[in-house]
Amino acid sequence: MKPLPLRSSQHGQSMTEYLVALLVAMMMVGVSFSGETSVIGLFLDAVRTAFERLSSFLSLPL
Question: Has this prediction a pTM greater than 0.70?
Answer without folding.
Answer: no
